[in-house]
Amino acid sequence: MITEKSTVLQVQSKYAFEIASGANKPMIKEAVEKAFKVKVTGVNVVTMPSKMRRVGRRHVLTRPWKKAIVTLQPGDKIEFFEGV
Amino acid sequence: MKVTKEKEENRQAYITVEMEPAEMETSLQDAYRHLAQKADIPGFRKGKAPREVVEHHLGKPRLLEEALDRMLPQAYEQALKEQEIEPFAQPDMEITQTDPLIFKAVVPLTPAVELGDYASIRVTPEPVDITDENINSVIEELRHQHATWEPVDRPLDYDDLAIIDINGMVEEKPYVQKVGAQIQVLKDLMSPAPGFSDQIVGMKKEEEKEFTLSFPEDYPNDKVAGKEGHFKVKLSEIKEEKLPELNDELAGQVSPDFKTIDALREEVVKSLQARGEERVRMDFEEKVINTAIEQSRVEYPPVLVELEINRILNEQVRQLQMSGRGMDEYLQSINKTTEQLREELRPVATKNVSASLVMSKVAEAEKIEVTESDIENGIKNMTRGSAEDKMEELRKLLDTPQTRESLKQSLRTRKTIERLTEIARKTEDTKKETKTKKKKKEEEK
Question: What domains can be seen in chain B, in order of their start residue?
Answer without folding.
Answer: 2-110 (3.30.70.1050), 111-147+245-299 (no CATH), 148-242 (3.10.50.40), 304-432 (1.10.3120.10)
